[in-house]
Amino acid sequence: MSDPQNQLPHCPAALAAALRVMPLAPLSLSLTAFSRRIARNHPALFQRLGAYGRTEFVLDPVDLPIVVCLNPNDGRPRIKLTRRKAQGAARISGPLAALIGLVHGAFDGDALFFSRDLVIEGDTGAALALRNAIDDAELDLAQEAETLSGPLARPVHHLIAIAEHQTGLCLTRPEDATIW
Amino acid sequence: MVMEIVCPAGTPAALRAAVKAGAHTVYCGFNDETNARNFPGLNFDRAEMRTGVDFAHQHGAKVLVAINTFPRAGDEAIWHRAIHDAEACGADAVILADPGLLDHAARHHPGLRRHLSVQAAAANADVINFYAETFGVKRVVLPRVLSVPEIAAINAETEVETEVFVFGGLCVMAEGRCSLSSYATGLSPNMNGVCSPASHVDYSEHQGVLDARLGGYLIHRVDKDEPAPYPTLCKGCFSAGEKTGHLFEDPVSLNAERLIPQLQKSGVTALKIEGRQRSKSYVAQVVRNFRTAVDALDAGRPLPEGMLARLSEGQAMTTGAYKKTWR
Amino acid sequence: MELTIGPNQFFWPAETWSSFYDDLTHAPVDRIVLGELVCSKRLPFYQDRIPDAVSALIEAGKDVALTSLALVTLKRERKLTAALAEMGVTVEINDLTALAYIPEGQTFYVGPLVNVYNEGTLRWLASRGARRVCLPPELPLASVAALAKAASDLGVAVEVWGHGRLPLAISGRCYHARMHGRSKDNCQFACEDDPDGLDVMTRDGKPFMAMNGVQTLSDSYACTDHQIELLRAAGVSSLRLSPQSQGFIPLCDLYRQRIDQSLAESDLAQQIRTLNPDIRLSDGFLTGSCGADWSGPQDRGTPNR
């Protein structure tokens, strides 16, 4: 495993720029569809949330001009992107690379938190449940995205394409051998 | 004989990661109040436990099921069922703390190996032998209040295997004997399997100064560039008399990797890593490190230098009570 | 309902210790548990006074028991604990280690620092000879009721922590010594400066805990004024009052009056505050949402929560 605290990559400026102008409504719809696909493929993820299955989470990539509002909605998740201030029961903020690296199990959430790369506000129990559930799910966002098709797929593919042209972001699951 | 590495697994993914990283043994718990890491989003349902045990066994590793809270009066059946199900899932042993539960397990599940949890705080050879004679306990997890010479003295006086913590969170109080958490939040390790629970944590940041509260009590206040500590009660910053500081324990975590050779000489059977609440990435990294160390020791090679500092709380380490000056 | 006086948790000068137990011979209490609970290093200072105190209390008609240490680790402590079983006085075990030395069939008491959380443990202890159990202070009323019911079938008397700073934790480390920059082995008995424990505050000035050598107590004093009827109805036969350095005999009188119904609910708490205006009370373990809660009216001494 690399040393995340010292070398968390910055989010590519191109992605930030794109998100400053891209219409967010279709992207929200696409991400909702994307998250429902994940929910179908990984039902245990949402079961693990237990009592937090309907909690409003705000995920704030601090290097992007948007925040992600996620409601797991008991296994039929809803995602909404917004450029405004968003309210939720629990808020997790940090560089996009940290947030995505967490999803992929490349970084240790507690270590990122102790080092203040990640900041948790609001319901700490909910944030912890989400972290634990995601850690168990062994997601691969890029692979999940590839299987996405239809008109809603295009904005997600577009985002990934922008990001993949840059280096540093942990968009695919590292193979077990390279995690450690 | 290579010392046994006993690793935490809060999720099935962490169990697989630990086994693949070289854990000899993994410990885990059911997703309810029967285990002392009853955290949101963690632990195993019955099917996951069965699959996890199978996976571990296929890879030559053992699984211990921690049922180490103290059953609630009137609801003991929940804990009895956990023992029954652990045996049915093929667990290699259960880790218990409550005398009533040990008595139940000895009577009704005599073929299931019993380990004494650190929550029982068995801190001397006499009480350890008493647990062995009375309940057939085969291994004891020693409380984190003992020095290395004391551990050696215990091993000289008992046939019971000893397991000691070598890495991770550090309890400064005798485990299973602490109700600080329920005093401040209503939830305790003994009754609910949680200490300083996240549900009662509140972080607030103002101009870079971060306040961490638990149950309304201010536990930490740190400046912009300092690490963010979790508000674990006994590691908070408090005032007493003229003094202000970490009166009970600094926000450090335990790392006894350099003491492994001494612990082996003291007759310790197994080295335990704390952290069922930590991610699989953490577990894998720590396991790999400790496995390398015990293999090196066994082969007579020098121990590799530690690489684990960043995974710890507040990013500082201690050898805890193993060195007597800690007291 | 009876009153039991728990072992003194603090380190007092030997003279103070002796006069405290002298006074108790006249107090309206039924039972006294004495001896060293917290730190074996304190014992030599008053050990030779224990036999006289025990005799005087027995002569005064009190039931007397000797406590074990709360955490037994050193060889010296194991010997001390083994010797307890041969003193000819009932032993109150506060660490299961003591049980290893009590021959099967010899009866004993169980103190609040042994984890008796459920009927199974209670049954097992009763089968070993337990005749009286003071339940762990953190138990809620529902557990107390369930255990008292089971205990009556087993012929075991149940006691509850009635008054005093709550013993919340015990450690291998001495916090008094640590605070003074000393090691435990060279503590110079720093805990003697604080006959009721040293107040520990949060950084924003809220009283929280109290330090007593290797022990950590609550800042608040547990008080069962508002639960006495509930406890009696649940089958609890005795309340435990924990020694404090000031006004303890008047405190025993107040609890006696409250139990005998010559003092009304709420008046007990009010009288306790008259004895000590700065005291903060709690009863949250029994009926609140957390241990520090207090079900009576707030008072200037009570921190805002």
Automatic annotation (TrEMBL), chain A:
SUPFAM superfamilies with a match to the protein in the record: SCP-like
Pfam families (UniProt xref): SCP2
Entry-linked InterPro entries: SCP2_sterol-bd_dom (IPR003033), SCP2_sterol-bd_dom_sf (IPR036527)
Domain SCP2 intervals: 54-134
Protein name, as recorded: Predicted lipid carrier protein YhbT, contains SCP2 domain
Native species: Ruegeria halocynthiae
TrEMBL record, chain B:
GO BP term (any one): proteolysis
Alphabetical keyword list: 4Fe-4S, Hydrolase, Iron, Iron-sulfur, Metal-binding, Protease, Ubiquinone biosynthesis
Needed co-factor(s): [4Fe-4S] cluster
Binding site for [4Fe-4S] cluster: 171, 178, 195, 234
Keyword Iron-sulfur listed: yes
Family designation: Belongs to the peptidase U32 family. UbiU subfamily.
Taxonomic path: Bacteria, Pseudomonadati, Pseudomonadota, Alphaproteobacteria, Rhodobacterales
Native source organism of the sequence: Ruegeria halocynthiae
HAMAP family (UniProt xref): UbiU
Statement: the UniProt record of this protein carries the keyword Protease: yes
Protein name (record): Ubiquinone biosynthesis protein UbiU
PANTHER family linked: PEPTIDASE U32 FAMILY, UBIQUINONE BIOSYNTHESIS PROTEIN UBIU
GO molecular function: 4 iron, 4 sulfur cluster binding; metal ion binding; peptidase activity
Pathway as given in its UniProt record: Cofactor biosynthesis; ubiquinone biosynthesis
Record function comment: Required for O(2)-independent ubiquinone (coenzyme Q) biosynthesis. Together with UbiV, is essential for the C6-hydroxylation reaction in the oxygen-independent ubiquinone biosynthesis pathway.
Quaternary structure, from the entry: Forms a heterodimer with UbiV.
TrEMBL record, chain C:
Keyword Hydrolase tagged: yes
InterPro entries: Peptidase_U32 (IPR001539), RNA/ubiquinone_mod_enzymes (IPR051454), UbiV (IPR043693)
Alphabetized Pfam families for the sequence: Peptidase_U32
Cofactor annotation: [4Fe-4S] cluster
GO biological process, one term: proteolysis
Pathway: Cofactor biosynthesis; ubiquinone biosynthesis
Entry GO MF terms: 4 iron, 4 sulfur cluster binding; metal ion binding; peptidase activity
Keyword line: 4Fe-4S, Hydrolase, Iron, Iron-sulfur, Metal-binding, Protease, Ubiquinone biosynthesis
Binding-site positions, [4Fe-4S] cluster: 39, 174, 187, 191
Family: Belongs to the peptidase U32 family. UbiV subfamily.
Subunit-level organization: Forms a heterodimer with UbiU.
The protein's role, per its UniProt record: Required for O(2)-independent ubiquinone (coenzyme Q) biosynthesis. Together with UbiU, is essential for the C6-hydroxylation reaction in the oxygen-independent ubiquinone biosynthesis pathway.
HAMAP family on file: UbiV
Protein name according to UniProt: Ubiquinone biosynthesis protein UbiV
Organism from which the protein derives: Ruegeria halocynthiae
Gene: ubiV
